[in-house]
Amino acid sequence: MYIRFRNKRYKLGDVAFHFFNTIILLFLVVVTIYPFLNTLAISFNDGLDSVRGGIYIWPRKFSLQNYRAVFISGTVVNAFFVSVARTVITVALNVFLTGMLAYCLSRKEYIFNKFITVMIVITMYFNAGLIPNFLLIKKLGLYGSFWVYVIPCLISGFNVIVVRTYISSIPESLVESARLDGAGDFKIFLRIIFPLCKPSLAVIAMFVAIFQWNNWFDTYLYCSSKQSLSTLSYELQKLLASSFSQSQSTQAVTSGLGAELASGMVTPIAMQAAITIVAMVPIICVYPFVQRYFVTGLNVGGVKE
């Protein structure tokens, strides 16, 4: 059976499929976006009013008090800059070092490329565990240091394999031409390989950035005794894991924020929503700039014919 629409004929089965497919996708969009809109509404709602509940996607009593409490606190502001620093530094070093290692492993003339590749793959399946990692961090002198956020995350086995596969798809004639012109391996990597690997490197940069920005467990393990090295995700985790009563939590959260905030205008649920939004905004702003690289980077870097 066919249905005519705008002088075109469509099969009834195709129309039904697209209709139900659209309904299901709209439902998934609503389910996905609603928690974000709800958190955003609570963050802009009056703190005391938020305790009553019943807030959905629009603030009942609009207020910026929650964000004032977030940014007036030196603890949260410092944690924000620590999170930015660890994310930017780790992403820059990880992308560069991963690209260099992947380029070395993609060279057929390098006799140890298969052996090192196997060793890297093994690390993707086996892990020493939490206690050996903790002891290693202490022996390396990284405990309680900012570099404990950076050095352990400089190389990822999965990222190396993805970039190496991508580099293998680049025509070898480009490298040979550069060698004939007198270019060395480092110059070939910087001038030819690195620019051509932008899609794949953008993908791993996004993966590393999201992991670094959201990770709080390493702060809990290695830097929990140093407030100056606390991250935004760890501050949020502490707030969410607070076991105090409502009044005790309000006092704990608002302590040191000034008389106006400590008067009870800020509540834990409102602060949780505000810090969550502050933690989400940087990733949301960065993602559109690298999203176009995702399909190309993963397809070419993850599939090798």
Automatic annotation (TrEMBL):
Residues passing through the membrane, by range: 12-37, 80-103, 115-134, 146-167, 188-211, 269-290
Name the CDD domains for this protein: TM_PBP2
Q: Cross-referenced Gene3D superfamilies, in alphabetical order? A: MetI-like
Q: Membrane topology per the record?
A: Multi-pass membrane protein
Q: Name one GO biological process term.
A: transmembrane transport
Domain (ABC transmembrane type-1): residue spans on this chain? 80-290
> Which protein family is it in?
Belongs to the binding-protein-dependent transport system permease family.
InterPro entries for this protein: MetI-like, MetI-like_sf
What is the protein's name according to its record? Carbohydrate ABC transporter membrane protein 2, CUT1 family
| Keyword terms, alphabetized | Cell membrane, Membrane, Transmembrane, Transmembrane helix, Transport
* GO CC terms: plasma membrane
Supply the PANTHER family for this chain.
ABC TRANSPORTER PERMEASE PROTEIN MG189-RELATED-RELATED, POLYGALACTURONAN_RHAMNOGALACTURONAN TRANSPORT SYSTEM PERMEASE PROTEIN YTCP
The organism of origin for this protein: Acetivibrio clariflavus (strain DSM 19732 / NBRC 101661 / EBR45) (Clostridium clariflavum)
